[in-house]
């Protein structure tokens, strides 16, 4: 069994190259070439092993390693967060909660593709508990709101470098400020 934190397919617009290579700063032409290579590799894998990993959820995880493990080692891909939440009995622990606040370094379209905040959201929705995300940075806010999060807030007070944002004292100060503001709003409703 292999734990994956995302459900990306092997290639395509939501696949390994377009999501992970872009995140690492690869230029658009190279991303397209990488994606074409992933498609070719998937075809070779299908011809040699008989396994079609093309649209298997998680095959694009870890830049395509999920697909390789699936094809060559007969691995079963499972959402890592799902396994973790089950191990800690998360669904029982949240019963009776009024709100869940979770976090992520960068909240973006990947967040809604199975990362920790999304899995927490799915469990919380079963109990009708709203979920708020605190993130170092935010992209694709409408897509995240559409996923069902009740609020997504940036920890950063404004435009800053990643290096500055990661400084422990600066990060602590900003998280404290944001949580204080959220607490003020939440408690004002009784």
Automatic annotation (TrEMBL):
Q: Which GO terms describe its molecular function?
A: glycerate kinase activity
Looking at the record's lineage, which domain of life comes first?
Bacteria
Protein name, entry field: Glycerate kinase
Q: Which InterPro entries match?
A: Glyc_kinase_flavodox-like_fold, Glycerate_kinase, Glycerate_kinase_RE-like, Glycerate_kinase_sf
Family per record: Belongs to the glycerate kinase type-1 family.
The answer to whether the entry has keyword Transmembrane is no
A single GO BP: organic acid phosphorylation
Keyword annotations for this protein, in alphabetical order, are:
Kinase, Transferase
* Annotated transmembrane regions: none
Keyword flag DNA-binding: no
